Model the fold of this input.
Amino acid sequence: MKTITFYTALVCLFLISQIVFGQEDYQKKIEALKIEKERIVEQEKDALKFEVREINKRVEKGDVSEMEAKSLKEEAAKRRALNIENRVAIVENKIVWLERNEGEVLVLTAVDSLDNDGISVGLQIYGKPTFNFNSKRWKRDMKYDRRTYSDFVFAVGLNNAVIEGQSLDESSYKIGGSRFFQMGWQWRTRVFKNSNWLRFNYGFSFQFNGLKPEGNQLFVQEGNQTVLEEFEYDLDKSKFRMDNLVFPVHFEVGPSRLTKTERTMRYSIRNQFRMGFGGYGGFNLGTRQKLKYNRDGDNVKDKLKRDYNTSSLIYGVSTYIGFDGILLYLKYDLNPIFKDAEIKQNNISLGLRFDI
Done:
């Protein structure tokens, strides 16, 4: 369906361009077709003369008799006469067609024959070829056994931190206000040749992990330490965000349906249970803090982009479980949020993941 939509849009663009930039004068096209009729007659007559000469050469060599040669010449003359009649009729029909529509015509051509395994579809606008699609080329590229598929992946949910010596109930960050978002692309490859119960998934993703401190606090960088401190004004919003580029890898297990045809063999995991376990590694692209507060009657918005002593290398473990493309997703950073911190903190996220 995506392919059809693409080519439909492409055809529409060509149609619009023809309208904008003008149309070919169809009267000139009709005059050209009339000249073509005369050329058809000359061409067929020249072809008949050539055939007659070839037959005469065969008589001189003794390959055919005079009687056989006469019969061959009559057949050739009859064939050429019919060719003239049919080809001229085609041209005359084109002339009538153009006159009836005043040149505003589209030509859609299709070829589908026994010795051409496929369909070639072309579009001509005012006699000019503008679009062509050959299904034979697509069929030739189609693999019988496709072992690798790809999906767009995005996930969203709650984010927080596991703080050394504290439980999540004692977290310094708001449970509902701290969130994460992730999006990327993954490839899914069947591990075994004749079974699809185990798949290897790999790809890349952008992670955006947000933390909202409890109370009227913000993050302050003091040397190699990053700590929470009370802000001098009443904060309407305090948000801390880490942006990462990671490369997830997972082993995925679950049933699938096998479909076989003469041309293809496909394993489908649509509407099937799935479970994956693995991890990720990557880089911190940036860290920023956003503050909103009122100062002396003025609404102030501060966007602070700093290092905040956050880890440059990101690595962790992740797992998901669910049905079809809707999955419960859990990830945990093994690297600390802040390097050299006196109290270790690790980012943790729980939410829904969607494979599209």
Observations:
- Residues 148-355 form one domain.
- Residues 154 and 183 are 4 Å apart (CA to CA).
- Residues 26-61 form the longest helix (36 residues).
- The radius of gyration is 36 Å.
